[in-house]
User: Fold this.
Amino acid sequence: EVQLLESGGGLVKPGGSLRLSCEGSGFTLSRYWMHWVRQVPGKGLIWVARVNTDGSSTTYADSVKGRFTISRDSAKNTMYLQMNSLRVDDTAIYFCASDRGTGWFDPWGQGTLVTVSS
Amino acid sequence: SYVLTQPPSVSVAPGQTARITCGGNNIGDKNVHWYRQRPGQAPVLVVYDDNDRPSGIPERFSGSNSGNTATLSITRVEAGDEADYYCQVWDVNGDHIFGSGTKVTV
Assistant:
């Protein structure tokens, strides 16, 4: 079964850092562009960041530019989101999703909750 | 930045057709994708490139896109179709934009 499995979420204080991971199961991540999308519980979906197949190109939403870094490790079949200088408004469920370079996301992981609070 | 506008909610009787709109400036020039999200679950792609369906998505789901409005139609609506639905496009500046979401109540 094709699955994306996120991990690394948790509670962190404002200004702190967290690294999220997204591992492929039955799914070779290196063949796809990969994304992070977040969702405040009860609210809508917000695209966060994208990395291309070999990791040489990344793009970020303005709200996280300069604070978040997306990367990937093909050997570990895993993608990451390093989140620094976290703010209260970064609190959300973070989903990873794959993209064949066509702009649509399929499949998605189950999400991991990040809570930024003092 | 590019904005996609969806109605907050749509109510439909079982067996009828639900139509969910997604408005955007000249959205007809873009490829529109649609996702279904049930409570507590991850989004699932139901329509891509305006009107194509991934494997496993029933023919009851279809899309159209022209001018300033894209539409997701769900025919013969079932209780299991009750969910939030989001449209999405890939903007020219490289960002991916989601609509605000529509809650479909059956």
